[in-house]
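Pinned message: reference record for Permease
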Amino acid sequence: MLKWFNGILQFKWLDNLVKLLVENVFGVSMASRLGSSIHFFIYDTIKIIILLGIMIFAISYIRSYFPPEKTKKKLEKFSGITGNIMASLLGIVTPFCSCSSVPLFIGFVEAGIPLGVTFSFLITSPIVNEAAFAILLASFGWKIAITYVLTGVVVGVFGGILIGSLKLEKEVEEYVYEIKMGESEIEELTRKQRIDFAIQNVKDIIKRIWIYLIIGIGIGALIHGWAPAPLLAKYAGPQNPLAVIVAVVFAIPLYSNALGTIPIAEALILKGVGIGTALSFMMATTALSLPEMILLRKVIKPKLIAIFVGITGVAIVLVGYMFNAIAHLLI
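Predicted structure (tokens):
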């Protein structure tokens, strides 16, 4: 039974169907570069869309219980390390985009939530979301997907703890402490409303990201079929001690949708690039994107932004090395 379930989850049936399509309908050999690329594009597109719909619906239903106002109220009840842990865990089921960072930050500070706890939430929330988890599950399997989620939470917890220990409250713009956002009524939804919310969220997210997915899968297909595996393995493989650091440094100033980079990461890994190198690049573009830094500059000063980038960047590098070290246990 477990073997059958794993086969369904790993999409072996889809892999075989697409192979038949490529060879018998398109008349292209799977042994050729073109056949390999076509298979990668069709297979990844279908499996990602299927899992994306399922995961977005499930997590969106859970998320309907955690609107921003309720999230703020829950975080108000915790302090210390417990607060950091709870903030990171809430970040999983409340994956607000970077455009929500400023109002959330103001709301948390205004509510008296410690700065370190606030950053635990802001670090984890963009890194770990239902769409990224669905694509990781489809591309790499449940071991890597779950390990990614756990490490995302760890990065958020320890990043927040370190920022909190530095007592950087004075690095928040003064006007933030003076804002009184007031209390808004928390609407309790019925089961039907929660289901409608989840369905609408599936439609909205797929509508927003499908172009990134197609571009990312297309680039991944080209890499899968045509990129020189020995060269990539030599310079970006797990044996290169600088590969993870270089990947994160290059990722920090970039803006790239994580959902589009996962298929690229999958293709690179298949070509011999270290798992940790590929995932740390993806994690850095998500947590440390340039647009988010620009938005956060509205409420925090450059010194705190630099510390935030430095601490989170180092944590992501360590996660990358960890993934490379335990890759044999995850594949």
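Pinned by admin. Summary line: Residues 31-330 form one domain.
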